[in-house]
Structures are given as C-alpha cells and as structure tokens.
C-alpha cells in the first residue's frame, strides 16, 4: 500500500526535477556561451524576452490547463504588471540604490497589481458557466492598453499631476519628470532585468505552481475542470477556487510583465507588445507545449521565440517555416499515432538502459 | 429522531409540477429505496435534497437541522453525499486523487502551506493518502489506485463514485441508480458492498433503483413515486405487493 503511494509520488516529483534540471542546464550552457563569446548580441537580446514569455505561458497554463478556463487577455495582466512596476521603480530609483531590492519591490508591486485586476475581473465572470472569461479578458486586454495610452502622470516639486487624454494640460515645472507620458509610455526605466534574474524567477514560479497543483487546492481546481457538478457535490466551493487559480495565474503574468518592462528603457503599450496578438501568441505556447504541462510551455515559448530570429536569413520563407513548425509541434504533441510512437521509443530506451545496467 | 425528515416537498418548473407533496422519513442506519417509473421525479427529489434545485415548497430536515434551500456545498458539509445516475468522476485524475478530492474538506491545511510545502502539508497528505487507500480497499480498488479514473471498467467506476462520496464523511448517502448498466454478478457484489457500507460506516442509505432484485434484496422500506407524487410508502414487501404499485410500475 505504502509502496504504491511512493510510486505515484515519485513519478510527479521526478517530472518536476526534470523540469528544474532542464532550466538550470540551459542556463549554464547559455552563460558559458556568453562568457566564451559564442553568442551573438542579437541572441543575447532575446534571452530576457524568452524568460518573460515562459513565465507568462506558465501563468496562462495554470488558467487554461488546470482551471480549464480560456483567457485571451494575459497580455493585459502582463501590461498591468509592466506599467505598475515601472512606475514604481521610476519613483523609487533615487531613494533606493540597491538594484536587487528595487527589483524585488518592482516584482512585488507588479504581481500584486496584476493579481488585483485578475481578482476584480474574476469576481463576476468566474461565477458564470461557459466561455465568458475569454470574452471579458479579451476586452480587458484591449481596454487596459488603451487606458494607459491616454494616461498622463507627471511629478515635480508641486507634487503629482494627472491628466487623461490630453498631456498638454499638465504644466510641468522645469525639473519635473514624466512618469507616464500617454502613448509614449514610461521612459528611462532602470535596467534591472537580466537573464539570471529571469531564470531565478522561472525557477521560483515553477516551484510555486508545481506545489500549488499538487496540493489540496490544486486538486480542487482540477476537480472543477473535470466535473463541476461532482466537485460541488463533494463540497468544493467552485467560485472560491476558480477565483484563486485565476488570480494566481494573473499574478504570474504580472511578474512576467515586470521582467519585460525592466529589460527596456522605454515601455509603451502598443498592440505588438501588449495587444491581442501577444495574448494569442502566449496561448499558442501553452497549447503547443501541452495544456497542463509547465515544462512544455517553457519549451514552446523558447523555441517559438527563437525561431523567427534564427530564420531571419531566409527572409520571405520565415513565416512559412514558422507555420510548418507550429503544425509539426501540434502533431508531435497531440496526434494519437505520434503519442504512440513516442511511448514506443521511450520504452525502447528504457529497455536498452536496463540491459546496459545488467 | 429521524435522520432525514422531508415534509411536503414540491417543485415547479414553470407550469410543470415535477414533484408534489413528497414526504419521507428515514431513520438512522436504514436502507431506504426510492422507486418509480421513468420521469416520476426521483432524480429531481435527489437534486432537491442535495441543493442542486431549490424546492418551491416544503422543508428538508437533516438530523434536526433545517437544510431547505441551502447550496450544494453547504449541504455536503451538513452531511449528505451522493452519486450520479450518469457517472461523474474526475476522469483525468488518478483513482486515489478522486478519493482525495472527496477528502478535501477534511484536510486542515491552507493553500499557502501547500505552496510552501511546510511539514504540516506532508503530515496531512500522508494521513489522507492512508485514509484514501483504506477506503479504496473497502471497494477493492486499491490495486488500481494509480490508474486514471476513466480507465476503470464501468462497474469499478460506480464503486469509485461511492468511495468518493463516502470520503466526504456524510451522515446520509444518496445513490442514484447504482446498479445501472451492471451485470447480475456485479449487481450482487454491489448489494454486498452497500450492506457492508451500512454496517461498517454506520451509514444511512437512500437509493434510487430500477433493479427490483436489488431493491427487494437490500431495502428495508420503500417509497414509490409516480407522476411526481407518492404512490405508496412502507415496508418493502408490503409496497411491492400493493396492487396500485403493481399496476403503475411493476406490471401485472
């Protein structure tokens, strides 16, 4: 009896260890490549975005894969995390010199702000059955982007100045600074993100989500996904756990946004970085990586971020190959025959490993 | 005092009176049957008892406490657990996890404890694993603990549903057609299991069933519903010989 339990425990922990090991190994390889000068600056510039997308994909996977609710507004939560944290670091950068502490504060602010919005949206929407969450999050993503584009906040010795839609209304004294300058976004953000910080964030978030889904709460969330009526009948409070999972998912997306914002000197809310396309792209990472597989989300995010850059030399064929890779990944992960083949190969590997051991 | 006392329960869906004047009294430890032709309102009664539907009128009293109109989750906490006519398991999860989800409200650790993997988490999880395995053993499912619930054969899925319901530590167990789709052997086994559950867990069971062998074999008292109204009520042998029941349901 106890043996059986151990076995099942081991299987999931083994899975987690593989994921952690994978991230660490990649990190070490990349770091050696950078120090030995084998990595182009173009590729180095992609490292932090790769971490960002991985983080947001993990967050979205919690929502789509475990809660079973479709969200197409995770770029919106990323946007909230990015702007709230950048706003905060701009204010605090003079008073706090230590970069690590400043970044930790930024992460805390971005995460809490995104979680707050996730909670706010979740209260009405998660009470409903059906695809309402997809519709509302889609709208949220667009609204938040447009709101930030018309928001003007500045600061000088007279205090804060606010304006909506017309920045000229603010009469700023000479040594005043713009905190959010409408469509120009937030400028001169301290560069706090690094690949190392991104990897540490990924590891911490993996630790949180893995423990979350393997706890009582995670099981309740999956029970709601699998059968809502049965979950209710065994005394699981549907709204509470849906709200909890969605809020955590939004918070993780916010953390991704923090990393994103502090990698750029100027962050603006344009359709390309925080719009609908970004949300869909992250959803693509999640679906292709496998719903419910955090490791898959990371792998998909990394491959699909690298691909367009790697293929840049092919010019016109770039997007063509990108789409072929998408289809191949989809088949590899989901087609029954492919799954069968993968299992066969895995079994062969195990056999030969056993033989060698003997 | 009776464990479950239902007085004058009724529900209307628009102009349709689905159940009307439903009375039932179940003593602690009883095996009680609810039978009747298709569409008589049996499952509707279950849905009212478990809070899926809110009754239009009448009262439900469990163990001296009025639970009329409460939500499903609250009613489960008060002590009513159920199974479903069309099996509703958590299919993508292991057999063991299905039972552990049933144990959800008995796990005294918070989400944060779970995320941080504090010692309390490990202690409670180990205890609950053991408890769940014990329950699975009762239903002869312990060897399949690691299987996905959807990979179990039909009869075992039904058993797992009962195990999950029992895991919530109820006072009253409602079984909605537990023998549906089972072969005679499985049905016989199920009858033994239900008896065993009653004796071992000191459980009170109310079940809906069409299999007359099972009903006459284990139920001590019966209520027959027809067109939403109680047709007959009383000791099993008396009810099954009632000419009205024979005419409406059993066939002459």
TrEMBL record, chain B:
Q: Name one GO cellular component term.
A: plasma membrane
Q: Name one GO biological process term.
A: L-alanine transport
Q: SUPFAM superfamilies, per this entry?
A: P-loop containing nucleoside triphosphate hydrolases
Question: Which InterPro entries does the entry mention?
Answer: AAA+_ATPase, ABC_AA/LPS_Transport, ABC_transporter-like_ATP-bd, BCA_ABC_TP_C, P-loop_NTPase
Q: Is Transmembrane helix there in the keyword field?
A: no
- Keyword Protein biosynthesis listed? The answer is no
Gene Ontology MF: a single term: L-valine transmembrane transporter activity
Signal sequence: where?
none
* Gene3D superfamilies from the UniProt entry: P-loop containing nucleotide triphosphate hydrolases
**Keywords, comma-separated and alphabetical:** ATP-binding, Nucleotide-binding, Transport
| Residue intervals of the ABC transporter domain | 4-252
Protein name, entry field:
ABC transporter, ATP-binding protein
């Amino acid at each position: 009896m106890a043996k059986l339990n151990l076995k099942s425990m081991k299987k999931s922990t083994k899975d987690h260890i593989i994921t952690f090991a994978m991230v660490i190994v990649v990190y070490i390889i990349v770091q050696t490549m950078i120090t030995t000068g084998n990595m182009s600056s173009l590729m180095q510039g992609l490292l932090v975005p790769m971490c960002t997308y991985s983080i947001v994909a993990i967050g979205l996977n919690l929502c789509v894969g475990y809660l079973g609710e479709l969200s197409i507004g995770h770029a919106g939560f990323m946007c909230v995390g990015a702007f709230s944290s950048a706003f905060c670091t701009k204010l605090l950068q003079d008073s706090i010199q230590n970069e690590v502490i400043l970044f930790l504060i930024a992460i805390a602010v971005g995460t809490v702000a995104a979680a707050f919005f996730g909670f706010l949206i979740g209260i009405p929407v998660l009470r409903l059955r059906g695809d309402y969450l997809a519709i509302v999050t889609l709208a949220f993503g667009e609204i938040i982007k447009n709101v930030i584009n018309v928001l003007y906040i500045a600061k000088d010795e007279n205090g804060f100045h606010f304006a909506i839609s017309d920045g000229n209304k603010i009469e700023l004294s000479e040594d005043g600074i713009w905190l959010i300058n409408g469509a120009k976004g937030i400028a001169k953000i301290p560069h706090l993100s690094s690949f190392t910080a991104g990897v540490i964030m990924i590891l911490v978030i993996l630790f949180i989500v893995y423990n979350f889904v393997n706890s009582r709460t995670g099981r309740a969330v999956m029970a709601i996904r699998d059968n809502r009526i049965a979950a209710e009948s065994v005394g699981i409070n549907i709204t509470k756990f849906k709200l909890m999972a969605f809020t955590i998912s939004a918070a993780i997306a916010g953390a991704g946004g923090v990393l994103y914002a502090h990698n750029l000197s100027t962050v603006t809310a344009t359709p390309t970085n925080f719009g609908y396309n970004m949300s869909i792209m992250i959803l693509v990472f999640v679906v292709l990586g496998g719903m419910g597989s955090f490791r898959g989300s990371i792998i998909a995010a990394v491959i699909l971020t690298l691909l367009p850059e790697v293929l840049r030399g092919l010019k016109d064929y770039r997007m063509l190959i990108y789409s072929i890779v998408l289809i191949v990944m989809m088949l590899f992960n989901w087609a029954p025959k492919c799954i069968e083949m993968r299992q066969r190969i895995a079994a062969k590997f195990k056999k030969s490993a056993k033989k060698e051991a003997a | 005092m009776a464990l479950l006392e239902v007085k004058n329960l009724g529900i209307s869906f628009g102009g349709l009176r689905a159940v009307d004047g439903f009375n039932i009294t179940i003593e602690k430890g009883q095996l009680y049957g609810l039978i009747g032709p298709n569409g008589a309102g049996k499952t509707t009664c279950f849905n009212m008892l478990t809070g899926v539907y809110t009754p239009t009128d009448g009262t439900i009293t469990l163990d001296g406490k009025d639970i009329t109109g409460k939500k499903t989750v609250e009613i489960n906490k008060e002590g009513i657990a159920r199974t479903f006519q069309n099996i509703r398991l958590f299919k993508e999860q292991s057999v063991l996890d299905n039972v552990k989800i049933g144990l959800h409200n008995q796990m005294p650790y918070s989400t944060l404890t779970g995320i941080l993997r504090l010692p309390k988490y490990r202690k409670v999880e180990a205890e609950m694993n053991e408890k769940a395995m014990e329950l699975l053993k009762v239903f002869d499912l312990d060897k399949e603990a690691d299987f996905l619930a959807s990979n179990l054969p039909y009869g075992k899925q039904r058993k797992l549903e009962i195990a999950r319901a029992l895991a919530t530590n109820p006072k009253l167990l409602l079984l909605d057609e537990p023998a549906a789709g089972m072969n005679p052997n499985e049905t016989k086994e199920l009858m033994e299991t239900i008896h065993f559950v009653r004796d071992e867990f000191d459980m009170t069971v109310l079940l809906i069933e069409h299999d007359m062998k099972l009903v006459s074999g284990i139920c001590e008292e019966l209520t027959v519903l027809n067109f939403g109204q109680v047709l007959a009520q009383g000791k099993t042998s008396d009810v099954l010989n009632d000419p009205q029941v024979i005419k409406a349901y059993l066939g002459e």
